[in-house]
Amino acid sequence: MLVADALHKFYDTPGGLVTVLEDVSFRLERGEAMAITGPSGCGKSTLLYLLGALEPPSDGEVLIDGTNPYALAEKQQASFRGATVGFVFQDHLLLPQLSALDNVIAPTLVAGKGRSQAQYRERAKNLLEAVGLAHRLTHRPGELSGGERQRVAMARAMVRQPTLLLCDEPTGNLDRAAADGVAEVLLTLHAERKTMLVVVTHNAALASRLPRRYELADRRLREA
């Protein structure tokens, strides 16, 4: 379960205190999915960073499968995040010098003990096949379309089998056809692997396909 309990986020700036989020609370069970919409600059990405153990809340608590990542030591927090949370950003952030397969494998290089690289490599191949890129394993990002690059990014996010998948505008840089294809792949991966899925998006068509929909406005999260 993902629990956001009375989350607040503010920044102390030279011009005074700037509040980004106020009293944000919700729960998401394993296998559930939710969309978060709202105007640009309203704090949607900030909320994802809080949920994904990238930035601590100013107040409130985040629990992922019963663990508060911000209560962990820095090294433990990084290990927990890497094993538990998968991220997909608007920009795919692939390494241009690596093939699609090696980009997917990259997060496993710091995974520590538990699985061999041969096992991770096989899983990466299976994921790329699942997103329709079995024929693109050796291609570098510059040889792939925008939609294909984002599919590689999704496979990379799933390679360590996270329980929580966070997506920040995953179709934002794509044309309609590519966006529809990426959305289909994302929802299929989620359904097959029973992740907890949180998607921040301006894409109304994508948001409408998720069973739970919220809007972030005036610093607060409300059911849409």
Average pLDDT, all residues: 93
Radius of gyration, CA atoms, in whole angstroms: 17 Å
CATH architecture assignment = 3-Layer(aba) Sandwich
Structure summary, number of beta strands: 9
Topology pattern, helix = H, strand = E:
EEEHEHEHHHEHEHEE
Fraction of residues in β-strands: 25-35%
Strand order of the largest sheet: 5-6-7-3-8-9
Helix content: 25-40%
What is the CATH C level class, in words? Answer: Alpha Beta
What would you call the structural class? alpha/beta
- The CATH topology is Rossmann fold
Give the count of structural domains: 1
Uncertain parts: none
Multimeric status of the protein: single chain
**Major sheet, described briefly?**
6 strands, mixed
Distance between the termini: 21 Å
Task: Describe the protein in words.
The protein has 224 residues and is an alpha/beta fold. The protein has one domain: P-loop containing nucleotide triphosphate hydrolases (Rossmann fold, 3-Layer(aba) Sandwich), CATH 3.40.50.300. The protein is 33% helix and 27% strand. The protein has seven helices and nine strands. The model has no long low-confidence stretch (mean pLDDT 93).
Strand and helix layout:
Blueprint: E1 2-13, E2 16-28, E3 33-37, H1 44-51, E4 59-64, H2 74-84, E5 85-88, H3 100-105, H4 117-130, H5 146-158, E6 164-168, H6 176-193, E7 196-200, H7 204-208, E8 212-217, E9 220-223
Parallel strand pairs: 3-7, 3-8, 5-6, 6-7
Antiparallel strand pairs: 1-2, 1-4, 8-9
